[in-house]
Specification:
single chain; mainly alpha; 59% helix
Length: 93
Amino acid sequence: MMAIDASFFLEILQVYEVQEGPRVSSRMAHLVDHAGRKSAHHAILRDLVMLENQIPRFVLKKVLKFKLPALECAKDKLLSMFMGLCKELSHSR
């Protein structure tokens, strides 16, 4: 179950990965409802930071390692994704 949760969490985190150049705002466009509100987006972010939904970092690294060639690449990518998520959360307040 934790592997499935980690996979979902990494899928969401990929959207926030810090990248060079301008950020494309359309990456989360599928989470905007018909009235233009980002209610699903905010609900997912809220759930991600809830204590009972936190996933150990080593589990995230192991799952990400299947996608990337080296553990160091997985660590760097995970750090970049968390930095982007933190920036998003600090701007939403």
